[in-house]
Design goal:
It is a single chain. By secondary structure, the chain is of the alpha/beta class. It has a single domain, classed as 3-Layer(aba) Sandwich (Glutaredoxin), CATH 3.40.30. The longest helix is centred in the middle third of the chain and has 16 residues. The protein contains 6 helices and 6 strands.
């Protein structure tokens, strides 16, 4: 049996036995995806905590990344979410987008994403540990910008007032041409 097959078998056995890390509110973790593979995880709420989030950022190295921390209960998040929907599509293939759903329930996050579908995955972050990796968690929403080297370039606390303001920030911090 290969190491991967053995690891999968052990993970399955632990899950079947109810043993494992995290809380019952944790979403299953998915493998990190390249830019091309992110659309296959569109609208999914992924688990795995900071480790899975960091692995995803590493898999995207070479591509600028925009990370939006949000929650279904957050009014300003609902206000700006259409900007992320639109710009993620406009920058497809040039900029990666990731969501981080902090201090929320998995069920509410899924309902929110059915109402506001996005072409990228969201990491479930009930304890705000993922958001803290990019200086988030103090304001909802918070947006982080990672350069192509994987380095955090800028963190914007609070909502963007317009789609144009978010687009300007993407172009300024990530040095990409207009959408």
């Amino acid at each position: 049996m290969s190491l991967r097959a053995l690891a999968l078998a052990l993970a399955f056995a632990a899950a079947a036995a109810g043993v494992g890390c995290g809380s019952a509110n944790q979403a299953p973790s998915a493998p990190a995806q390249s830019l091309a593979g992110l659309s296959g995880q569109a609208g999914q709420v992924l688990g795995g905590g900071t480790g899975a989030f960091q692995r995803q950022l590493a898999a995207l190295r070479g591509t600028p990344v925009v990370v939006n921390q949000w929650a279904s209960w957050c009014g300003p998040c609902r206000f700006e979410f259409p900007f992320f929907q639109s710009l993620a599509r406009a920058y497809r293939g040039r900029v990666a987008f990731l969501g981080v759903d902090s201090q929320d329930s998995r069920g509410d996050a899924r309902k929110f994403l059915r109402r506001f579908p996005v072409p990228y995955p969201t990491f479930f972050d009930p304890d705000v540990a993922v958001a803290r990796t990019f200086r988030g968690g103090a304001a909802w929403p918070t947006t982080a910008f990672y350069g192509p080297t994987g380095k955090l370039v800028y963190t914007h606390p609070g909502a963007f007032a317009t789609r144009t303001k978010l687009d300007e920030a993407i172009r300024q911090y990530l040095r990409v041409g207009a959408a």
